[in-house]
Automatic annotation (TrEMBL):
It is a multi-pass membrane protein. Pfam families: SSF. Its main location: membrane. Keywords: Amino-acid transport, Cell inner membrane, Cell membrane, Ion transport, Membrane, Sodium, Sodium transport, Symport, Transmembrane, Transmembrane helix, Transport. It is found in: Cell inner membrane; Cell membrane. It catalyses: L-proline(in) + Na(+)(in) = L-proline(out) + Na(+)(out). It comes from the Bacteria. The chain crosses the membrane at residues 6-24, 75-92, 126-147, 159-180, 187-208, 228-248, 276-295, 315-337, 369-386, 392-412, 424-442, 454-475. InterPro entries: Na/Glc_symporter_sf, Na/Pro_symporter, Na/solute_symporter, Sodium:Solute_Symporter. This is Sodium/proline symporter. Belongs to the sodium:solute symporter (SSF) (TC 2.A.21) family. Catalyzes the sodium-dependent uptake of extracellular L-proline. It comes from Shewanella insulae. One of its GO terms (molecular function) is sodium ion binding.
Length: 498
């Protein structure tokens, strides 16, 4: 690896740490500042931080690799994600921003659930927090595995050392600056990803005289566009599109809506976020498509299709630019890890420690505990990541479905349905998570296969949770006092005061 590449990466790492120090001086005086940035995050930062924390390393590695292997069928997954993100901005973001502030300034999703459903036992809050910590610890370990493998393959360093470097930088700025540091670094990382996913496919395309010749080389390995679109089975199509359902229940994404400075800014965030997401997804798909054509033209053997972005970065660019492009992969990985660490930490401190201990801790003490929570989750995740055989894609896919099924329906019901009960909330969370786990691991099909081999576990999990919430609320004779009208009226009064 050329020394200029290392210089580019060193600049990137220093920039992330500098942002963490800046945020440390700006936003960590109280718990609200550490967990939600004081609800003063701009729409620009909201949009790009939501996108960067959402997409992770799979945007630069997984999606191009899927296009490289499967071909145009991957477009259905991309379309499902775009549609899910758009609907999330339209129907979840505005109400969640208002309701969480009206609910006595709820700082976390579990805390909002507890206050929304008047749950004196705090069962819904604690169960939600436990699910968040467990799933995000696994999710974080997947990101650390990706970081370790990136350093090993691109820089020829020991896997464990790569893991430590990735963990050290991301924990440092997350631990120091909290939500503001995570959001600002995600904004920068989102910009890097945006540029990289335009630059790489455009430069790689220059190796072909025209689009027809490039497509001819690509069609040597993948089906033609028309054939690919027609040959997808109904279950395959539904599974691909259902990825979009997951957005409603992803704590590290929807927490951005809680932190934006005003409801009126959400429209701006939506326009920026959806534009960013559309361009980057097209760039990721184009990288995989040009990659398969490039490999066929030059008879290039690629042992791992998910490394096509790395290969292009090293083959086609000056070492200084190559370092920038590799930093884009690290940016994607770190942006998601930092968001997950912070949400896990806030659940540990605000939703488990504060509720279980019932101690009156000061704001400074809770912020310190939040930092210990970041470090604790990071340590456990790093220990899990030492097993490099873990499948990154499967861990991410399972966690995405788990959150989407456990929390997605409840988020929607809590914002739009009257007379819900805390019993229905608890039952819905458990039903969604349990269905996903059963669908993934129960060997009920021939040859011991799981049901997830036929249909993505998101769909049955989401349906089960929705039906249970609806059914238990209808049967339970003790609806919560906080109806939709109560929250809407409080929201209008809040707006008038401002």
């Amino acid at each position: 690896m050329h020394y200029l590449t290392y210089i580019s990466l060193a600049i990137y790492f220093l920039a992330m740490l500098a942002i963490g120090l800046f945020a440390y001086r700006r936003s960590t005086d109280d718990v609200s500042g550490y967990i939600l940035g004081g609800r003063q995050v701009s729409p620009q930062v909201t949009a790009l931080s939501a996108g960067a924390s959402d997409m992770s390393g799979w945007m630069l590695m997984g999606l191009p690799g899927a296009m490289f292997l499967v071909g145009f069928e991957t477009i259905y997954i991309a379309f499902g994600l775009l549609l899910g993100a758009l609907v999330n901005y339209l129907i979840v973001a505005p109400k969640l921003r208002v309701y969480t502030e009206v609910a006595n300034n709820a700082l976390t999703i579990p805390e909002f659930f507890a206050k929304r459903f008047h749950d004196p036992s705090s069962h819904v809050r604690i169960i939600s927090a436990i699910i968040i910590v467990i799933f995000f610890t696994l999710y974080t370990s997947a990101g650390l595995v990706a970081g370790g493998k990136l350093f090993e393959s691109a820089f020829e360093v020991n896997y464990e050392l790569g893991l430590v470097i990735t963990l050290g930088v991301v924990v440092s700025y997350t631990l120091l600056g909290g939500f503001l540091a995570v959001s600002l670094t995600d904004f920068v990382q989102g910009c890097i990803m945006f540029i990289a996913l335009i630059l790489v496919p455009v430069v790689a395309y220059q190796e072909f005289s025209n689009a027809d010749k490039m497509m001819n080389f690509a069609y040597e390995s993948i089906p033609h566009f028309g054939d690919a679109m027609q040959n997808v089975t109904l279950l395959g199509l539904i599974s691909a599109l259902s990825w979009g359902l997951g957005y409603f229940g992803q704590p590290h994404i929807i927490v951005r809506f809680m932190a934006i400075r005003s409801v009126s800014d959400i429209k701006t965030a939506k326009n920026i976020g959806m534009s960013w997401m559309t361009v980057t997804i097209i760039g990721a798909l184009a990288t995989g498509l040009v990659g398969i054509a490039y490999a066929n033209k030059f008879d290039m053997k690629l042992s791992d299709p998910e490394t096509i972005f790395i290969v292009f970065s090293e083959l086609l660019f000056h070492p200084l630019i190559s370092g920038f492009l590799l930093a884009a992969i690290l940016a994607a990985i770190m942006s998601t890890i930092s968001s997950q660490l912070l949400v896990s930490s806030s659940s540990l401190t605000e939703d488990i420690y504060r509720v279980v201990s019932k101690k009156a801790a000061s704001e400074e003490e809770m912020v310190k505990l939040g930092r210990f929570g970041v470090a604790g989750v990071a340590i456990v995740a790093s220990l899990l990541a030492l097993d490099r055989s873990n499948s990154i894609l499967s861990l991410v896919s399972n966690a995405w479905a788990g959150f989407g099924a456990a929390f997605g329906p409840l988020v929607l019901f809590s914002l739009y349905k009257k007379n819900l009960t805390h019993k229905a909330a608890v039952a819905g969370i458990i039903a969604g998570a349990a269905t996903v786990l059963f669908w993934i691991y129960a060997p009920v099909l021939p040859e011991g296969k799981a049901l997830s081999s036929m249909l993505y576990e998101m769909i049955p999990g989401f349906m089960a949770s929705s039906l249970v919430i609806w059914g238990v609320s209808a049967l339970d004779g003790d609806p919560c006092e906080n109806t939709i009208e109560t929250f809407d009226e409080a929201g209008r009064q809040l707006a008038e005061q401002r």
